Amino acid sequence: MSQELPTRLRSEPIVEVVSEVRFDAAGDAAVNLLPGILHEKFGPFDQQGRTFPVALPPEMLASDPSLAFRSQVAMTKENRIIQVGPKVVSVALRAPYPGWTEFSAFICKVFDVVCAQSFINRFDWLSLKYLDVVSFDGESPTLGWLNADVALGGNKIDEQPSALRVEYVEGAVTTVVQVSSPVQTQQPGQSARTGVLIDVDTIHREEFSDFPGQYREVLEQLHGRNKNQFFSLLTDDTKRRLGPEYT
After folding, report:
1. For the chain, is the Cβ count within 10 Å smaller at the N or the C terminus?
2. How far apart are CA 60 and CA 91, in angstroms?
3. Do residues 206 and 125 touch, judged by C-beta distance below 8 A?
4. Phi and psi of 152, rounded to 5°?
5. What does the mean pLDDT of the chain come to?
6. What is the largest CA-CA distance in the chain?
7. Alpha carbon distance 43, 47 (integer Å)
8. What are the CA-CA distances from residue 41 to residues 27, 33, 49, 110, 159 (Å)?
């Protein structure tokens, strides 16, 4: 029987959550039209502007297809950020984290607008990434907080600066786990803290036959996998010290 996972942690380590959808779109239609449509639906925004100083020309996108999945316009309202690229839309949330129910509802509102546009079609990527920083006052970051045993050339890596990346595939879902230590983060109204970064990205990489009808279920599956992966990386003592709550 699987172990029950906490509903929340009193010492919340989440610093950012990002969900991203990728699609096909005609030319620059997404970059030129979606920001205005999203502004009408969710604006006014506190900040809105290009992440690139100028629009990327078609010949540059043709020479490097990966640029089509880079955001060109960002719209920020409080701690929520919507970003738009030629073939991508992402929804990000920076701490404080209100919980999955509230944030997933906002993701779905944005993606529903994307789905409704006639110039967008063939969705083939949906991802959900959580970035957590585990830290404890007065303590130096250590991989000993994690359920991991890392050694290189017979030398155990624990408190030394380190960066690890693991990727594995299960069916249509790819999970990418990255761990970095030490890292420093600072939330509004709080002092800077130094800890261990746990970056878990769960990605559905197969084409959807009916994205509007399927993506909510897939998003919930990605959230479940992401949450299971995160808690599997913590030792029992680390989980206890973070203050798990189950209701």
Report:
1. N
2. 25
3. no
4. -135, 120
5. 91
6. 58
7. 10
8. 23, 13, 17, 9, 47
